[in-house]
User: Fold this.
Amino acid sequence: MTRDEVLALPATVDLVTGGRALGMGETKTRELARAGQFPVRLLRVGNRYRVVTAELIALLGISEDLGRTA
Assistant:
């Protein structure tokens, strides 16, 4: 995903989208989530995971100002 695509994401995204933002495939993403090793906080909603977009942005070092990375 591009910087702009990540910044346009809602406050939380589904697990696969979160993994895609980090450059991971679906299998690895689900494996890490099940093992409790996904690199950012996951919210459990029923039997689904939600990824906190702000934490994705922080992990990726994306800055909203002037298009620069931190």
In short: The chain has four helices and three strands.
